[in-house]
């Protein structure tokens, strides 16, 4: 599905966006009947509040939409845009656009609130159509929304219909639309291609594991995106309890988010050379499943002791990152629904990221605020390196003790990044646990808009 702005119309109903402090100035401009109606309804300008007003003939005259206070807007991003999407059938235009990023956020919030996951059940979309606000790049916002919808659709689709083969089909469809090229290394060919960890994690599944490799663009700086594509995670022989397994269709959320970001980049025709690497597997159980206690050798020669088969995401990412580092890009980014420890640390709404590059970290922090895509920097804390060194092998995939799980996972991944000037790892959740404005319960992209906003500065585009 897609969401688009309406064409300009002389009959579009004006929207007046008001913060609580704006109401005393706005009310005198209304008719006596309109003022009485607004007072009767108790309109206070809180975020997402909306009141429709009629003219003397009873026809729609305007809608007042609450912006809330600055604190409200920080807590309830997209509330005003979602309120617009929920208005009665009609075409609307914003009479006075809040300046800068706020106007873009409201417009994007409207588009994102149009999302419906309708693959398995018809769901009517919003009836309100919005004319793109003055000063907004309508096409850019529509493409960002379309990319987010792609990410949400991929995550929301159950594993029966979103295995490694379906993830490959999604990537090929994206590449075909924008002129990218895709290579897939599948099954036993992974061993011959020296991608042993990807093969080992996925070999027990009925659908073959694979490494998906897309390239796009011929000029400009090189950007490589690596997304964890574990299409379902049973935990392997360290089987997850049912309560933990129920959401594991979302364990390919890193791949889904990377595909959404790639779509943004290609739709914008950014002047760069893009590479997307997705290790696509299912962590399943059968007679040939890998075992606790096994020692595996990764693509770059490092040995890994398996202390928990449920810590499989870092294994498939390790091979992909080692491959990416053999042709060092100007920026390397990995995205993964990697650890529960990240959720304990920052909750489901923040996307923690790791980088050693101060300029990159600063650019991401600035971009996150500009596009309402919250991220939080976490440390590559050097003293914890010993926690991922078991002694019997170079690395431990699941350090004992339970401390600093997201940090130790990030440190593990960094061991497979060599000779790359800039690297960032995002440990995302990829799921909205309860509905929020423009973010229904279900799959959600995290960090992609932030990265998209930051790339021109980071790569000097």
UniProtKB/TrEMBL annotation:
Q: Which domain of life is it from?
A: Bacteria
PROSITE patterns with a match to the protein in the record: CYTOSOL_AP (PS00631)
Q: What is this protein called?
A: Leucyl aminopeptidase family protein
This protein's GO cellular component annotations are: cytoplasm
Which GO MF terms are attached to this record? manganese ion binding; metalloaminopeptidase activity
What residue stretches are annotated with the Cytosol aminopeptidase domain? 308-315
Show the PANTHER family listed in the entry.
LEUCINE AMINOPEPTIDASE-RELATED, PEPTIDASE B
The entry's family comment says: Belongs to the peptidase M17 family.
Q: Per the UniProt entry, what are the Gene Ontology biological process annotations, in alphabetical order?
A: proteolysis
Assigned keywords, A-Z = Aminopeptidase, Hydrolase, Manganese, Protease
Organism this protein belongs to = Rhodophyticola porphyridii
The record's listing under CDD domains reads:
Peptidase_M17
Matching Gene3D superfamilies, A to Z? Leucine Aminopeptidase, subunit E, domain 1, Zn peptidases
């Amino acid at each position: 599905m897609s969401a688009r702005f309406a064409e300009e119309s002389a009959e579009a109903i004006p929207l007046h966006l008001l913060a609580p402090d704006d109401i005393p100035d706005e009310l005198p401009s209304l008719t006596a009947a309109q003022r009485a109606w607004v007072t009767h309804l108790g309109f206070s300008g809180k975020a997402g509040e909306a009141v429709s007003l009629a003219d003397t003939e009873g026809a729609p005259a305007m809608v007042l939409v609450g912006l809330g206070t600055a604190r409200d807007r920080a807590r309830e991003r997209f509330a005003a845009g979602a309120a617009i999407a929920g208005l009665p059938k009609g075409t609307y235009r914003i009479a006075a656009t809040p300046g800068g990023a706020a106007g873009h956020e409201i417009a994007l919030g409207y588009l994102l609130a149009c999302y419906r996951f309708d693959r398995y059940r018809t769901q009517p979309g919003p009836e309100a159509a919005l004319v793109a606000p003055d000063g907004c790049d309508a096409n850019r916002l529509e493409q960002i929304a379309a990319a987010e919808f792609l990410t949400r659709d991929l995550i929301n689709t159950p594993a029966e219909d979103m295995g490694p083969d379906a993830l490959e089909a999604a990537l090929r469809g994206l590449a075909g639309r924008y002129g990218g090229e895709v290579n897939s290394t599948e099954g036993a060919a992974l061993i011959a291609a020296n991608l042993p960890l990807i093969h080992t994690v996925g070999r027990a599944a009925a659908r073959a594991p694979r490494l998906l490799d897309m390239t796009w663009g011929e000029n400009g700086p090189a950007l490589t995106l690596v997304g964890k594509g574990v299409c379902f995670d049973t935990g392997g022989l360290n089987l997850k309890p049912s309560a933990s397994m129920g959401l594991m269709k979302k364990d390919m959320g890193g791949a889904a988010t990377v595909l959404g970001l790639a779509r943004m980049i290609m739709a914008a025709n950014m002047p760069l050379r893009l590479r997307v690497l997705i290790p696509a597997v299912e962590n399943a159980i059968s007679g040939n499943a890998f075992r606790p206690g096994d020692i595996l050798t990764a693509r770059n020669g490092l040995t890994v002791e398996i202390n928990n088969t449920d810590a499989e995401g870092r294994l498939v990412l390790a091979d992909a990152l080692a491959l990416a580092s053999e042709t060092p890009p100007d920026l390397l980014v990995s995205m993964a629904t990697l650890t529960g420890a990240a959720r304990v640390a920052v909750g489901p709404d923040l996307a923690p990221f790791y980088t050693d590059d101060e300029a990159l970290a600063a650019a991401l922090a600035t971009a996150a605020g500009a596009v309402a895509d919250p991220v939080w920097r976490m440390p590559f804390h050097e003293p914890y390196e010993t926690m991922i060194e078991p002694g019997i092998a170079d690395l431990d995939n699941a350090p004992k003790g339970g401390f600093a799980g997201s940090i130790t996972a990030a440190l593990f991944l960094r061991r497979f990044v060599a000779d790359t000037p800039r690297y960032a790892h995002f440990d995302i959740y990829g799921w909205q646990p309860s509905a929020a404005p423009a973010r229904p319960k279900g799959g959600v992209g995290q960090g992609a808009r932030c990265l998209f906003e930051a790339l021109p500065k980071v790569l000097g585009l």
